[in-house]
Amino acid sequence: EELLEFINKMEHELTARSVFDTRLSTAEEDLAAALNDLYDHLGTEGPKPPSQKIADEMAQSDAPDNYSDTLDILLDLVQSTYRFSRATVRVIDAEEQRRNQAKLRNPRDKELLASMNALRSTERNTWESIDALGKGLSIYAASVANSPDALANVEEDMKQELAAGVPASRIREVTALFTKKFLYPTETVHSAIHALLDIYSDVQADLGELRDAEMERRDQLSELLAAKRRELEDAMKKAGKDVDKDGPKEMFDGDIDKFVEAQQAQDQDELQQLLQLHGDRALLEESARLTAAKAQLVKDATAAALSD
């Protein structure tokens, strides 16, 4: 029964790691899309051209509602990359905490021990890359956290300047002045995303191969656990003992809904604080809808894994 208990716990652990894989993959997809959009929007010629374009668009629009489409898009994209960076870091941090709390003792069975050690070796390499990604994202988020407010402040200053009335002879001078003011926060975003993309590209170059190696070891361990379970169940039947077919499910710490909802609540809490700060209620509602849909996918995937 000691071995059966270990098998139950190990099967639960493999299921939990599959849930993490799904959550991280979803977070990475959202993040990659947002980063690519921001990179494309900034262009390849440095931070000065978009800063110049923002100032030009505002100078050419009508007072007092001067605006820049380029700036509006930049603000949305910076906020999106910040939000998705923080969400990805939370997924990584939560899994690290879970694994630290769920460390398993070594089994007495030599075959299982050898298979577990092989998995530990491959996942150690995978986690180093994931950890590097998390640290890079944390640095990026900290770097751009104040950029939306900085850009919005310059926008407001330029609106006030234009609303006060600027002679045609001074428009070029005022535009040049505010181009320089927009340049600093834009340059901050430009530098941060290029630094992150350098890290991101290095990590992704290795991570795919490392994940494949880890998944191969997981599959091998899963097959061995299933074989050991069958051996134990056959032995228990011959001895006239009841066989608990639901053992692995009982080791899942209760309700799948609660597991998913706990992660979802944490994501939504920080997201709501950020969006309320900027007053974007429509985006909050849409994000809540998407998060709920993703949570359902994770739940379905987990339930399917547990029923196997």
Strand-helix topology:
Elements: H1 2-42, H2 48-60, H3 69-101, H4 110-144, H5 147-163, H6 171-238, H7 247-250, H8 256-278, H9 281-307
Helix pairs in contact: 1-3, 1-6, 1-9, 2-6, 3-4, 3-5, 3-8, 4-6, 5-6, 8-9
Short description:
This protein has 308 residues and is mainly α. The protein is 85% helix and 0% strand. The two termini are 21 Å apart.
Helix content: over 70%
- Any low-confidence stretches, pLDDT <50, length ≥5? 246-256, 277-284
Give me the oligomer status: single chain
Largest sheet: none
**Percent of residues in beta strands:** under 5%
Descriptive tags:
about 300 residues; mainly alpha
Plain-language structure description:
By secondary structure, the protein is mainly alpha-helical. 85% of the residues lie in helices and 0% in strands. The protein is built from nine helices and no strands. Mean pLDDT is 83; it is low at 246-256 and 277-284.
